[in-house]
Amino acid sequence: MLANYLIGLREGLEAALIVTILIAYLVKLDRRDLIPRIWLGVGLAVLLALGIGAVLTFGTYGLSFTAQETIGGLLSIVATGLVTWMVFWMLRTARNLSGHLRSNIDHHLVGSGLGLVVVAFLAVGREGIETALFLWAAVQATGQTALPLTGAALGIVTAIALGWLIYAGMLKINLARFFTWSGAILIVVAAGVLSYGVHDLQEAGLLPGLNALAFNVSAAIPPDSWYGTLLKGTLNFSPATTWLELGVWVAYVVPTLGLFIRLSRQGTRPAQATAPSTAPVAASRPRASVDAP
What we know:
The chain is mainly alpha-helical. The protein has one domain (about 1-290). The chain has helices spanning about 1-30, 35-60, 65-95, 95-110, 115-140, 145-165, 175-205, 225-235, 245-275; strands at about 175, 215, 240, 290. α7 (about 175-205) runs antiparallel to α9.
């Protein structure tokens, strides 16, 4: 549940910041008449995410065990790739996120402003698709539905509240630190999803080594115990792990986390010297209190 809460919080906060910047910029330009276009794009993005979740959930019914395990394994790998891309994308573009979005708005202000629907749809839809895939992979890994969805829902609600407080100028948070720490944690979580995807493909017979266990600590960490469930729900830890799962986990975590930490440290040096601001500018409102990444 904790991992899914973090997914909902991070993805939701990214989406909330994007919407906040878009709306604040339109307010600054005195184009409040175009704000409904933003909300239309957001609504379509949410429907897309829900639709993908429904297809993933109900589309596998009636399939053979091998087909279900194959689809589950491949989608877990895709989810890992998307989350990894998202983590590095935010690390690279957070500093100029506001400028990038404002440039898109300027480009689509001509005419009826319907292009703003596309801007909001693409910006928020990306977060929604990533969330839907990652949550589905988490549900498959844990075998539970209520806890992952509850955790993600609580994270999204928290993100919406934070986004509103930031827009209203009542909250100041260090976004650079938040995205750095959450990114590092998500890389570890994504490694567990990737490892579980490999296990699914082993179950389907597409990868070898299903019975070649690197370790089996089921006696010390029973899967149905509270701490076994906690480790499964947060890190996708399996008490019985094959050598291939372990190898893939290490091969992903070590270089990915190492690169992320190195880029994060490189990014903080110029930020401390120049202190750029990416806070959304809201007309007729106090300045949004957001520390620049």
